[in-house]
Design brief:
heterodimer; A: about 450 residues; 12 helices; about 65% helix; elongated; B: about 450 residues; mainly alpha; Substrate Binding Domain Of Dnak, Chain:A, Domain 2
Chain lengths: ~450, ~450
């Protein structure tokens, strides 16, 4: 029964932890009930979290927690992977709706920070209620991302907006910055919600539903900083060995990612530059119309014409403003998100390579009989599974990501084109009506002159 | 428009050679087909041709510009641009034109012509020349006088200048102008022989008059204010326009970068590749379209600039009026004081200070004979003065009448031209918008096919 429970829980967290009936060759994973390792985990929880003053080590639902603080050692069976791959995006069956809004400033004696309100509406059974409202700060989002990356090292986790933008930022809490960040955070959570695997991640659920104190205590559980550091060291060490056997398809993927990253960065720069140029054009145009009004004051016969021209220029000015805001809403955030995505992807490739490197090093050790080789075949077996899992997860997610990317980019640029068309159409209408009124006037005048 | 037979009194100072009015040397003007200057409207042409005083129509064009090198006055080598002026006479009946004259002139010769006209027709608002150096430049446009675009615009401006003179009822009859179009060699000497430089009013004198004049005609004072306002507002407009052009250039050109990057990106995309590639091409088209758009706008700016310079021509007429008025006032003042002197001498009372009075006081009374002599001299002077005052008065009134007639003509021309310029600006904007719609519609289609 415990096995079943485990399995169902595992399924709901999107990572079916290999059939409880021992299909997974490795039984020494930190499963619930394996008191040795969970004790280990708990002991490793040191308070190195930045937020909290208290050192409360709260062991809430250890089983739940353990399953989700997946260390990269956790194997999953190929059979369970099939279930995962079958999970497709089905927009009609969307049952989790998240909004991020209402940024609020909080001032404490130590610091000032912003929280965002997160409202979740869902019909899912595993949620205790159908509606949740919580407040989260940026750090909480960082934590969530970290957990997701830990649990799913070769899935493409959506990117978070940057911590801060160096260029031109004087104050951290400038309104535009907050709004941009809010929108990006909204996107971030929704992308997770739309992801077939990540949407069922337990940390994600907790993030969306837990009260502040619950979250902070939950955060403290799980591998602490030291263990994370340890993993990083291992990662660096293994990546130093180089990936000699990176499969062909991942070579291609890597090449794509590199080139894509270059191009999307350029496009980001270009788009930002366009926005800047349009803004400066708008600023100059604002002055242009009023001069004609000024002029009309000294011309008796040209008053109406000059005033009309001034009116046209002002209307075109407004149209420019609208175009600018369209650009900043439709294009810039999308392009920027993919810049961050490209960085993410490189991280994912590295992690995949690292997993493979671990296998490779063990194989090497076996081949050259460097260390005691008794346990090696078993370890290698586990690692081979792990590598296969990781590769399959990445491949599936890659296809999904590429599809999304194409759609998003296509939509963003189509919107941009639409904004421009609309802008020119508005200006055209303005000037054409001016022209008509002038020719009508002229016709009136000349018909008056005729005897 | 007045088309009175030539009236010598209308010319305040006679032109050095007889003003042309002889039918056989008839110099009307028609808008040349090459004319690109603004504002020569058909109504002007009609008035000219309806005047049966002119038997022929003439077309003037500045058709070419050429870089030349030569030696200047200090025998140093210099590069300059020469412009080809072609005059064609149009047969009334069949409209065929025959080339009658063609010669090359450089900008300095145009300047000489204008300066001459300014001196001999001070009551006329003399058309201005296109700018000597490029001003109100936005960054891409070069301020170099040798730049081909600048030369081209100047060519058009010079043609416009000649056409304006040729269509002016009074200026068109001037012989020096006629010779400018027909006599290549020796023309400079001919102009200088008129001695017009000597006849010009000194700047200092004019300035002095402007400050000291007591009773100028109010209309001219108002006109001066108007021309100051016109100059100030057009300068401001041109400056802002240049900045707007600069920014617009930036917006368009940055889009060109998309073209390059899309093209590179399309190489790694399977499904999106074609769409990206062709969209990129449209971005290139968009980016390069701004060059023509802004070139057209420069012509609009030139039309405005002409009126910016016209403001100075208006001021010149006002200055002349002030000078004449001041002259008149001074003459009247002088006459009044002489009369008073005379009276005092006659009656023996000394009310006014005079050197003679002082010296007589100091060195003794003058004899009655001496006094008689002085009175006589004064009376002669007074007589002369009264004659002069009368003629000055007449001159002044004539000037005001004629100047104001030309100013009315100018005002109508200005209203027509500026309105037309503003309309042409709207037309340019419309064309730019249409191009924009087309490019972005194409791009959108490419994007949606990605």
């Amino acid at each position: 029964m415990e096995g079943e429970r485990r399995a169902s829980q595992a399924r709901s967290s999107g990572l079916p932890a290999g059939g409880a009936d021992g299909e997974s060759p490795g039984g020494s994973a930190p499963f619930p009930g394996n008191s040795g390792s969970s004790a280990l985990l708990q002991a490793e929880v040191l308070d190195l979290d930045e937020d909290e003053d208290d050192l409360e080590v709260f062991s809430k639902d250890a089983s739940l927690m353990d399953m989700n603080s997946f260390s990269p050692m956790m194997p999953t069976s190929p059979l369970s992977m099939i279930n995962q791959i079958k999970f497709e995006d089905e927009p009609d069956l969307k049952d989790l709706f998240i909004t991020v809004d209402e940024p609020e400033s909080h001032v404490t004696t130590i610091e000032t920070f912003i929280t965002y309100r997160i409202i979740t509406k869902t019909s899912r059974g595993e949620f205790d209620s159908s509606e949740f409202e919580v407040r989260r700060r940026y750090q909480d989002f960082l934590w969530l991302k970290g957990k997701l990356e830990e649990a799913h090292p070769t899935l493409i986790i959506p990117p978070l907006p940057e911590k801060f933008i160096v260029k031109g930022m004087v104050e951290r809490f400038n309104d535009d910055f907050i709004e941009t960040r809010r929108k990006a955070l909204h996107k971030f959570l929704n992308r997770i919600a739309d992801h077939p695997t990540l949407t069922f991640n337990e940390d994600f659920k907790i993030f969306l539903t837990a009260q502040a104190w619950e979250l902070s205590s939950h955060k403290k559980q799980g591998p602490g900083l030291l263990s994370r550091m340890g993993q990083t060291v291992r990662a660096v060490a293994s990546s130093m060995r180089g990936v000699k056997n990176r499969p062909e398809e991942f070579m291609e993927m890597n090449n794509f990612i590199e080139l894509f990253s270059q191009k999307i960065n350029l496009i980001d720069k270009i788009s930002q530059r366009i926005y800047k140029e349009e803004r400066e054009y708008f600023d100059e145009m604002k002055e242009y119309g009023p001069i004609h009004i000024l002029w009309s004051a000294s011309e008796e016969d040209l008053v109406d014409t000059l005033k009309d021209v001034a009116g046209c220029i002002d209307r075109c000015c407004k149209a420019t403003e609208k175009r600018m805001s369209g650009l900043s809403e439709a294009l810039l955030p999308v392009v920027h998100e993919y810049v961050l995505y490209s960085e993410m992807l490189m991280g994912v490739m590295k992690r995949r390579d690292q997993i493979q490197a671990e296998l490779d090093s063990k194989v090497e050790a076996l081949t050259y009989k460097k260390t005691d080789t008794d346990l090696l075949p078993e370890e290698i077996g586990k690692l081979e599974d792990k590598v296969e899992c990781a590769n399959n997860a990445l491949k599936a997610d890659w296809e999904r990501w590429k599809q999304n990317m194409q759609n998003d980019i296509k939509l963003a640029f189509t919107d941009m084109a639409e904004e421009n068309i609309h802008y020119y159409e508005q200006c055209l209408a303005t000037w054409e009506s001016f022209l008509t009124s002038q020719t009508n006037l002229h016709l009136e005048e000349t018909s008056e002159d005729k005897p | 428009m007045e088309q009175a037979p030539r009236d010598p009194e209308r010319q305040l100072q006679p032109a050095p050679l007889e003003p042309l009015g002889c039918p056989d040397a008839g110099l009307g003007a028609a808008v040349g087909k090459e004319a690109a200057g603004a504002g020569e409207e058909d109504s002007g042409v009609d008035t000219m041709t309806h005047n049966n005083f002119w038997l022929k129509k003439i077309e003037i064009s500045v058709s070419e510009a050429e870089k030349r090198t030569g030696r200047n006055a200090m025998n140093m080598q210099e590069t300059y641009t020469a412009y080809l002026i072609e005059t064609r006479s149009v047969e009334h009946t069949d409209g065929q034109s025959v080339l009658t004259d063609s010669l090359w002139r450089r900008y300095s010769e145009f300047e000489l012509l204008r300066n001459y006209l300014l001196v001999y027709y001070p009551h006329i608002v003399v058309p201005p020349l296109p700018e000597k150096r490029a001003e109100f430049v936005w960054h891409k446009l070069s301020a170099d006088n040798m730049d081909p675009d600048f030369v081209e615009r100047r060519r058009i401006g010079l043609e416009n200048f000649l056409l304006r003179i040729a269509s002016h009822p009074i200026l068109c009859r001037d012989k020096i102008f006629y010779l400018f179009l027909t006599q290549e060699g020796n023309w400079k000497e001919t102009v200088n022989e008129t001695g017009f430089q000597l006849k010009a009013d000194s700047r200092l004198k004019a300035l002095n008059a402007t400050f000291r004049v007591k009773n100028p005609d109010k209309r001219f004072t108002d006109l001066k204010h108007y021309s100051d306002e016109l100059q100030s507002v057009i300068s401001h407009l041109l400056r802002v326009r240049a900045r707007v052009a600069d920014r617009l250039y930036g917006v368009y050109k940055v889009h060109g970068n998309y073209g390059r990057v899309f093209s590179e990106w399309s190489a790694i995309e399977k499904e999106m590749g074609d769409g990206l590639q062709s969209a990129g091409h449209h971005m290139d088209v968009y980016a390069s379209s701004i060059d023509d758009i802004l070139e057209d706008e420069e012509h609009y700016a030139d039309q405005l600039k002409e009126y910016l310079f016209y403001a100075e021509a208006l001021r010149a007429v006002c200055r002349k009026h002030e000078l004449m008025q001041y002259d008149l006032e001074m003459a009247a003042q002088d006459l009044a004081s002489k009369k008073q002197q005379c009276e005092e001498l006659a009656t023996g009372t000394v009310r006014t200070f005079s050197l003679k009075g002082m010296t007589t006081k100091l060195f003794g009374q003058e004899t009655p004979e001496q006094r008689e002599a002085r009175i006589k001299v004064l009376e002669e002077q007074i007589n002369e003065g009264e004659q002069q005052l009368k003629s000055k008065n007449l001159e002044g009134r004539e000037f005001v009448k004629n100047a104001w007639a030309d100013i009315e003509r100018f005002k109508e021309q200005k209203n027509r031209d500026l309105k037309e310029a503003l309309i042409s600006y709207a037309v340019m904007q419309i064309s730019m918008c249409k191009k924009g719609i087309q490019v972005w519609t194409n791009a959108k289609e490419c994007f949606s096919k990605m």
